[in-house]
C-alpha cells in the first residue's frame, strides 16, 4: 500500500462557499450574451438553474455547451473576452461575500501542523479567481504555489470532468495517483479525479439537506470511494484510505 503524501482539494464549495455567488454572476453575464446574440431563451437563466446543470464546470465549458445547444457562435477572441468578464464579475462578488466551508479551516490547520502531507488546490475555475478565493478566506498559506486551474494552468484550457488538470497537478508535484487523495463536491470533479486514477472523497456538506442523499448517490456513482458530510470526518476517512480499508 503506497503512502499518501499529497491531498488535492477542489476549491468551489469544497474549500469555500462560492458556488451560489459565482453562478449568480455567471447567470447575469450569460443572459447578457444571449440577448446580444438574439438567442431565444424560454426564460432568463438564474444562478440556481446553472448550478443544477453545470456545477463543477468552468465558464468556458458552460459557454461551449450553450453554443451547441442554442446554435450561436462565439469566435475564440470573443469567448476569451467573455471569460475575462466573467472572472471580473465573479471575483467582485467573492471578495464581497465569500466564506470558507464549515470546518475546513480547522482541518487545514491540523493537516498543515501534522507535516505529513503536501496540499494543493485543483480547480476548474480560472486561476485568478481561485487565488482570490483562498486569499479572501486566508487559506492561501496552506497551498503556496500548488494551485492549479483547468481553465488557466494547462497549455489547452479545459474543464472537469476531463482528468487533465489532475494529471497536470500530479506531474508538477512529482507524485503518482496512488500517493494522492482528492476531495470533490461535484459529479464532474469526482469523475475528473477518478479518471486520473486518484481515490476521491465525495463531499456533500454545502448541499441543502434535502439534496444531500441524492448527491451522495451521484458522487458514489461517479467513483467517490467514500462520502463526507462534514470536514470533521476527514481525519478518520483519510486513516481508512491509508490503511487500505477504503
Automatic annotation (TrEMBL):
Keywords: Carbohydrate metabolism, Magnesium, Metal-binding. One of its GO terms (molecular function) is phosphatase activity. Its cofactor is Mg(2+). InterPro entries: Beta-PGM-like, HAD-like_sf, HAD-SF_hydro_IA, HAD_sf, PGP-like_dom2. It comes from the Eukaryota. This is HAD-like domain-containing protein. It comes from Lasiosphaeria hispida.
Amino acid at each position: 500500500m503506497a503512502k499518501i503524501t499529497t491531498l488535492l482539494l477542489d476549491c468551489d464549495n469544497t474549500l469555500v462557499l462560492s458556488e451560489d455567488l459565482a453562478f449568480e454572476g455567471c447567470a447575469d453575464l450569460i443572459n447578457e450574451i444571449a440577448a446580444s446574440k438574439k438567442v431565444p431563451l424560454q426564460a432568463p437563466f438564474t444562478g440556481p438553474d446553472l448550478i443544477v446543470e453545470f456545477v463543477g464546470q468552468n465558464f468556458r465549458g458552460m459557454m461551449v455547451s450553450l453554443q451547441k445547444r442554442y446554435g450561436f457562435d462565439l469566435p475564440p477572441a470573443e469567448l476569451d473576452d467573455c471569460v475575462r468578464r466573467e472572472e471580473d464579475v465573479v471575483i467582485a462578488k467573492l471578495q464581497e461575500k465569500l466564506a470558507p466551508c464549515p470546518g475546513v479551516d480547522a482541518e487545514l490547520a491540523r493537516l498543515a501542523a501534522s507535516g505529513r502531507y503536501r496540499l494543493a488546490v485543483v480547480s476548474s475555475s480560472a486561476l485568478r479567481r481561485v487565488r482570490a478565493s483562498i486569499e479572501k478566506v486566508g487559506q492561501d498559506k496552506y497551498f503556496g504555489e500548488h494551485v492549479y486551474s483547468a481553465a488557466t494552468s494547462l497549455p489547452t484550457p479545459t474543464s472537469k470532468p476531463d482528468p487533465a488538470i489532475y494529471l497536470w497537478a500530479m506531474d508538477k508535484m512529482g507524485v503518482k495517483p496512488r500517493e494522492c487523495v482528492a476531495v470533490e463536491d461535484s459529479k464532474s470533479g469526482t469523475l475528473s479525479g477518478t479518471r486520473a486514477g486518484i481515490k476521491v472523497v465525495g463531499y456533500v456538506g454545502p448541499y441543502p439537506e434535502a439534496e444531500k442523499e441524492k448527491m451522495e448517490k451521484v458522487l458514489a456513482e461517479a467513483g467517490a470511494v467514500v462520502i463526507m458530510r462534514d470536514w470533521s470526518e476527514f481525519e478518520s476517512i483519510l486513516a481508512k484510505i491509508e490503511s487500505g480499508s477504503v
